Amino acid sequence: MDDNGGVYFVPAFSGLYAPYWKDSARGVIVGLTRYVTKAHLARAVLEATAFQTRDVVSAMEADSGIPLRQLRTDGGMVVNELLMQMQANTLNCPVVRPKIRETTALGAAYAAGLGCGFYKDTDDLTQHWSIDKTWDPDIDPKERGRQYRQWKKAVYRSFDWEETD
Fold this sequence. Notes:
Blueprint: E1 8-10, E2 28-30, H1 38-64, E3 71-72, H2 81-91, E4 95-98, H3 103-115, H4 122-126, E5 131-135, H5 141-158
Parallel strand pairs: 3-4
Antiparallel strand pairs: 1-2, 4-5
Helix pairs in contact: 1-2
């Protein structure tokens, strides 16, 4: 599927967290028409992951004053090549997948190795990290902006769905 058919999905199942902090938000699917297929919905769900990452990265950049030059990924979702390309397009920077995809567990092992002296320093660890694949942005900047504006509209529609007394 080349596009989302105008559908946006906001997974606010128990509110929206960083950077929105809206516990009264609820999940929404917007932009449905009679032409939307299950493939459009599936793509919208994947895009939501990329848009949520962009929201958090934008907040981090604003707070730190440091622009993101590349995103290094890990975890189960990195096997989805379409998602990785969407992430590069959404962030407008390269997305890098390491050869070892479960780096959280690897980081714990590295910490233990440093603690017991198996590794002498963090420089010793960097030689073990290597790139499996890199995705570069390949989307028109105007289209990137349009998609993100639509995502933000969907996010704002999810706000205050749950009424609090």
